[in-house]
Amino acid sequence: MLHLHHLKNSRSFRILWLLEELEVDYKLTCYERNKAYLAPESLKKIHPLCHAPVLEVDNRAIVESGFIIEYLLKHYDTEKQFKPADDNEAAWEAYTFWLHFAEASVMPLLVMRLVFTKVVAKSPMLIRPISRAIRRQVENSVIKGNLTKMLTMMEQQLQDNHWFAGEAFSAADIQMYVPVVAANAGKGLDKVKYANLLNWLNRCQERAAFKRAEAKGGSLHF
Amino acid sequence: MLHLHHLKNSRSFRILWLLEELEVDYKLTCYERNKAYLAPESLKKIHPLCHAPVLEVDNRAIVESGFIIEYLLKHYDTEKQFKPADDNEAAWEAYTFWLHFAEASVMPLLVMRLVFTKVVAKSPMLIRPISRAIRRQVENSVIKGNLTKMLTMMEQQLQDNHWFAGEAFSAADIQMYVPVVAANAGKGLDKVKYANLLNWLNRCQERAAFKRAEAKGGSLHF
């Protein structure tokens, strides 16, 4: 039996969405973020990391989005609908690249941006101008330039392909959904420069499984 | 023809090491970090992200450590020496988990720690106490607790297993090498609490392929 522990408005939305795409039976428990915007302590009982997603598989708790996706596809995607076959080289490469890139390259920058935003918000009024200046320095030297280059790579991929792994929707799209939504937060991505990326977001949101996931676990809005 | 663009003292050491384990022919170009501790601009000609590693495969540049590892294993690990077979479920799960966990969960915390260290070092003397206080706040609220939980998971895995994927060395060990070296930087990990992890580091460093990689691309010392 599969049991997903889902933190609302977090990366774990992806696993909920994938479970809906797979049309498998699963139990769902939803958690709300605490005041520090983190997973609540109750998740610690499920896995010591106290992060979401946690997927219980026959009472064994597994974590790490990329691994959970690969695990679910190996055991439940019997018709190979959501991962390109090994002999479809170009699609296999794209799938594997974006699956890793989402969490290893894009998300760390976006999380760092979030941490600096929280640092500024928590700073006492007197030192806030200094913490703002530090945030600006890191944003300009580490985050903005790298993120722009990554977004350009994403936009190019979707200019040439309907989905991240090529012509077919795959779990790489599910994995990429969170960083793209996070990068589109606040003022939002430029509608002309990232037209293909924003159209892809719409295509994701139109899927029946996506809508069922949203209805059960809430939408993502950073 | 494979051509590795290796930034000395960086994550790209792993790909160099894997190429040596695979005993394939490849060309190697080494780069030094610039004064800002980043990859030099000359890497931008190879790939727009200007990050290392970059592997050129027949003049096509591929990036992202986890993807490069999977690509090399698919095409060059013909005897399946460095990745557990699909039907070896426990080892396959461990391999896949640690391959993702290294870059998606551990490294982002260590990179954030590095960024805050640089922020403090670059701060003008007058505001340095404030940037130190901010670093301390993030270290205590975001980095230290999470990293300790992750190191505990690693230590437990190596208490029960010789290598990260079980009894056989695999590319998951190569992928995990960088975050463990980075976590061991500075004062170093507690020699009693992390005895198995530190013994595993030694076992990695004793491998012939590791020594050849070090001789060609320099050692890792954060």
UniProtKB/TrEMBL annotation, chains A, B:
SUPFAM superfamilies hit by this protein: GST C-terminal domain-like, Thioredoxin-like
Keywords: Transferase
Xref: InterPro entries: Glutathione-S-Trfase_C-like, Glutathione-S-Trfase_C_sf, Glutathione_S-Trfase, Glutathione_S-Trfase_N, GST_C, Thioredoxin-like_sf
Domain of life: Bacteria
Coiled-coil regions, chain positions: none
Alphabetized GO MF terms: transferase activity
Residues in GST C-terminal domain copies: 88-222
Gene3D superfamilies named in the record: 1.20.1050.10, Glutaredoxin
Residue ranges constituting the GST N-terminal domain according to the UniProt record: 1-80
Pfam families, alphabetized: GST_C, GST_N
Family per similarity comment: Belongs to the GST superfamily.
Protein's name according to its UniProt entry: Glutathione S-transferase
The species this protein was found in: Psychrobacter urativorans
